[in-house]
Fold this protein.
Amino acid sequence: MLAEDAVFHSPVVHTPQRGKKLVAMYLGAALQVLFNPSFRYVREIVGETDAMLEFETEVDGVLINGVDIIKWNSDGQISEFKVMLRPLKAINLIHQKMGAMLQAGQ
């Protein structure tokens, strides 16, 4: 699903993460941290080459509201994935949890 030159824009890392392997690692960590029974998409805006998906989830008692902005190439592969989160308490929590996961190599 990911293009070889895919780019991931994290809500907590300043520089874009480039390349299929790195993007997959970040998306995998995000999935482990954010996806649970409370996760749900609440709005979808879809175009020909991109989509914006708003989601809500709860992690450690913190209600998280976020947006996935996804762009795909002419082959239908994801070329860019951007995540935006709110509120600040949620960003700090996700930064801590994903940071620990990525440092552990998961």
The first strand starts at residue 2 and ends at 9.
